[in-house]
């Protein structure tokens, strides 16, 4: 499916270039109107990132998150600095459908395994962001500032024992660039991990990119900047996905 994405920093919609807070672009959008339109067009889920929360969990944009939940009944998956069971319980209580876990999947694996057991694999999305060198998919964490020695495949294997289902995989070099997605990456991982529902993220700029990604058999495509900059409409994107 197509998953529209909104990143928020200081209460405003924003896109970062390859995760760099110094290279950001704010967008003047009517979020409420966007959500009404998405609902009307048949969007099944929204992806939301609290970039303030990512940098510092004490600065989570709670009032904004509450407002967004009150705007729409489209299910929303939320990411950004989710580190504890308390964070997860609070976000589910607010009404979010899924939580997106990033750095903790590397730094706190015992806890994340426990969360998969407690909440169920439908409620947890692992966000695994990779830098690819010589086809080795090394995971980066903490806003992509810290490289790790874990590969994408190793982490998926580690959590497969807990019935991991949803993985949001981003090629960092593509994020926020509109330079086209890494089709080879998604072909490889979809073929290797048949039980995982992959969400592809990064680089989508044309309807042709959607067609190419659908052909890799990823479950979903997360689209942020292209929709914000009106490279195509949500209606066109959804039609393209369904047709393909």
Automatic annotation (TrEMBL):
Molecular function (Gene Ontology), one example: 1-(5-phosphoribosyl)-5-[(5-phosphoribosylamino)methylideneamino]imidazole-4-carboxamide isomerase activity
Catalytic activity: 1-(5-phospho-beta-D-ribosyl)-5-[(5-phospho-beta-D-ribosylamino)methylideneamino]imidazole-4-carboxamide = 5-[(5-phospho-1-deoxy-D-ribulos-1-ylimino)methylamino]-1-(5-phospho-beta-D-ribosyl)imidazole-4-carboxamide
Primary residence: cytoplasm
Record-linked Gene3D superfamilies: Aldolase class I
Keywords recorded for this protein, A-Z: Amino-acid biosynthesis, Cytoplasm, Histidine biosynthesis, Isomerase
Active site: 7, 129
Subcellular location: Cytoplasm
Protein's pathway: Amino-acid biosynthesis; L-histidine biosynthesis; L-histidine from 5-phospho-alpha-D-ribose 1-diphosphate: step 4/9
Record bears the keyword Isomerase: yes
GO terms for biological process, alphabetical: L-histidine biosynthetic process; L-tryptophan biosynthetic process
Similarity annotation: Belongs to the HisA/HisF family.
Record-linked NCBIfam families: 1-(5-phosphoribosyl)-5-[(5-phosphoribosylamino)methylideneamino]imidazole-4-carboxamide isomerase (TIGR00007)
HAMAP family: HisA
Protein name as annotated: 1-(5-phosphoribosyl)-5-[(5-phosphoribosylamino)methylideneamino] imidazole-4-carboxamide isomerase
């Amino acid at each position: 499916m197509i998953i529209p994405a909104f990143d928020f920093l200081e209460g405003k919609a924003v896109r970062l270039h390859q995760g760099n807070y110094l290279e950001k672009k704010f967008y003047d959008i009517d979020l409420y109107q966007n959500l009404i339109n998405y609902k009307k067009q048949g969007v099944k889920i929204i992806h939301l990132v609290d970039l303030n929360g990512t940098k510092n969990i004490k600065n989570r944009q709670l009032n904004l998150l509450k407002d967004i939940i009150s705007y729409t009944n489209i299910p929303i998956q939320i990411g950004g600095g989710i580190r504890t069971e308390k964070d997860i319980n609070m976000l589910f209580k607010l009404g979010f459908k899924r939580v997106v876990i990033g750095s903790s999947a590397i730094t706190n694996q015992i806890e994340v395994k426990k969360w998969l057991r407690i909440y169920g694999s439908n409620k947890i999305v692992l966000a695994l962001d990779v830098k690819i060198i010589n086809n080795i998919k090394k995971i980066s964490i903490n806003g992509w500032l810290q490289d790790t020695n874990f590969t994408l495949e190793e982490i998926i294997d580690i959590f497969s024992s807990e019935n991991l289902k949803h993985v949001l995989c981003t090629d960092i070099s593509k994020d926020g660039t509109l330079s086209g997605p890494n089709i080879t990456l998604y072909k490889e991982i979809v073929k290797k991990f048949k039980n995982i529902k992959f969400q592809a993220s990064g680089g989508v700029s044309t309807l042709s990119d959607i067609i190419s990604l659908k052909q890799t058999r990823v479950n979903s495509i997360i689209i942020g900047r292209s929709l914000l900059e009106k490279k195509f409409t949500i209606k066109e994107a959804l039609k393209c996905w369904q047709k393909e």
